[in-house]
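User: Can you recover a sequence for this backbone? Please restate the input before giving your answer.

Assistant: Of course. Working from this structure:
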């Protein structure tokens, strides 16, 4: 859909404990970000709701956003009155009417009250006749099916938005939405693969809303779900903003035109088009053909390679570097490597392979055999050990793996964790194997890790940052590019565990020059792949053409 109107249902600003110094948090930041990401309007909360008297903060919120009520709609925080520190429902409604507030946030876990009719019935009796928009989070409901169903049924005439779900809560959310026809979801952190399509098709587009998590999260990540949707235009428009406007009984906000100085990436994305420049995904998993999950709490709808290519075509991703799920997370390396070889042979122009090795299941001879076959004969360019065996990446049992990679100038993708040596192990490997390029996975997951990676990269030129993470932290890509250089930061998706579209939107809408974005989404990874010395094996044509 060409430039749909976005009306964000999940934005907040204000000071709060444990804020990173780099984190964006002010009202001015929020307004700037709405413009940057092309979001017309937002339903806004205040981050002090959880840390000070809610009614005091409610009034502060409406006063602070008063000059911007054309695009900022207040959401007040409410709670039961019985304890004596909050207005009774009648007085609350009067105050909300005076300020034209049409949405209410509940924080039962934070505020310490039971989710029970004895406590919440007075508020339910006040809100239900008005069909008030009600918002809460799964964590505030204790991530409990019983609590969530009880809450939604108490407010049975109100749309209830369950915010900040995670991909790991797919089954819980399906159960709640099955049981409660008034329950809705927002997508800011529920970035599970094809979640908008699945939930819109199962429940109707009216129960799915776009939230950004601004200004903490990138609004570009939210846009990704809209810009490259697989749904029809009417469903996209509803999810992007019409649902929220209807629930607030408010007019649709004005459309935001694409800025005259927008680069080609932003222009194509906002037009709903696949990106036309070279895009390479440096971090992706895959399931066996026909599978929709990987056991445990991992639901990955259409997580096989052919289905994943349908999404990559929609987005404009040309080549995906793919590793198995079974060989990494499940630690079934033989099955995983065999699977990836078959997938690469089926789609050699669109999929590159990474091998897996595990010294708790494989002998040194078997690890050497992995290298000779999957890299030497098949042409895999990447190596992917994983954390599930508790063996540090720089353990001598991995030496044959890295020695081969060093001799052939391959790359390793490393998910850092304390049980596998953390960044100390990455530093050690970078020193001992200088011809290997080490991609630190999920560098964009936290400011703390970003600083660690940037510090290590300042000492070792073969350490680079790979971004992917659901948090999609606002401003962290720009920070990494400024500290490490734009040529050392890479786009990746971690699909199909998470949907790839928010990860690409995070990069496309970053506040960077177009030339830097082109490096980020493809150029940098192409350079790393070209370093590989595997005689007789060619890279996909799109990469060869880009470097001719």
């Amino acid at each position: 859909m060409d430039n749909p109107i976005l009306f964000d249902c999940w934005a907040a600003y204000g000071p709060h404990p444990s804020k990173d110094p780099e984190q964006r948090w002010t009202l001015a930041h929020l307004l700037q970000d709405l413009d940057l990401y092309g979001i017309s309007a937002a339903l806004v909360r205040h981050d002090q709701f959880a840390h000070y008297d809610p009614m005091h903060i409610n009034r502060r919120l409406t006063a602070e956003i008063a000059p911007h009520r054309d695009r900022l709609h207040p959401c007040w925080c409410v709670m039961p009155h019985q304890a004596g520190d909050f207005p009774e429902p009648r007085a609350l409604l009067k105050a909300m009417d005076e300020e034209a507030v049409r949405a209410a946030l509940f924080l039962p876990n934070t505020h310490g009250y039971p989710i029970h009719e004895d406590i919440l019935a007075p508020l339910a009796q006040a809100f239900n006749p008005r069909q008030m928009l009600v918002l809460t989070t799964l964590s505030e409901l204790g991530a409990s099916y019983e609590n969530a169903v009880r809450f939604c049924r108490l407010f049975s005439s109100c749309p209830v938005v369950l915010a900040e779900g995670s991909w790991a809560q797919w089954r819980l959310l399906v159960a709640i939405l099955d049981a409660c026809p008034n329950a809705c979801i927002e997508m800011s952190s529920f970035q599970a693969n094809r979640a908008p399509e699945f939930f819109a098709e199962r429940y109707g587009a009216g129960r799915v809303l776009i939230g950004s998590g601004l200004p903490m999260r990138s609004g570009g990540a939210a846009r990704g779900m809209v810009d490259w949707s697989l749904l029809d235009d009417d469903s996209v428009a509803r999810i992007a903003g019409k649902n929220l406007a209807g629930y607030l009984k408010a007019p649709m906000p004005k459309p935001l035109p694409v800025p005259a100085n927008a680069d080609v990436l932003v222009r194509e994305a906002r037009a709903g088009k696949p990106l036309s420049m070279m895009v390479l995904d440096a971090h992706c998993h895959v399931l066996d053909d026909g599978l929709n999950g990987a056991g445990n709490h991992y639901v990955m709808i259409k997580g096989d390679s052919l289905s994943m290519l349908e999404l990559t075509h929609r987005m404009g991703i040309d080549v995906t570097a793919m590793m198995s799920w079974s060989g990494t997370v499940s630690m079934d390396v033989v099955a995983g490597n065999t699977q990836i070889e078959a997938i690469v042979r089926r789609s050699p122009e669109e999929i590159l392979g990474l091998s897996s090795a595990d010294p708790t299941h494989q002998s040194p001879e078997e690890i050497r055999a992995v290298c000779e076959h999957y890299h030497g004969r098949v042409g895999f360019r990447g190596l992917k050990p994983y954390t599930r065996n508790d063996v540090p990446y720089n353990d001598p049992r991995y030496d044959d793996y890295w020695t081969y990679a060093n001799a052939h100038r391959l790359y390793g993708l490393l998910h850092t964790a304390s049980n596998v040596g953390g960044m100390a192990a990455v530093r050690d490997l970078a020193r001992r194997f200088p011809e290997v390029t080490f991609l630190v996975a999920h560098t964009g997951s936290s400011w703390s890790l970003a600083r660690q990676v940037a510090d290590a990269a300042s000492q070792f030129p073969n350490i680079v940052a790979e971004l992917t993470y659901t948090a999609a932290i606002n401003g962290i890509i720009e920070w990494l590019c400024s500290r490490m250089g734009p040529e050392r930061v890479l786009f990746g998706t971690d699909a199909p565990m998470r949907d790839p579209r928010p990860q690409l939107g995070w990069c496309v809408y970053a506040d960077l020059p177009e030339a830097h974005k082109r490096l980020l989404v493809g150029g940098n990874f192409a350079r790393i792949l070209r370093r590989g010395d595997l005689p007789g094996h060619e890279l996909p044509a799109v990469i060869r053409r880009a470097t001719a």
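That completes the design. Residues 514-531 form the longest helix (18 residues).
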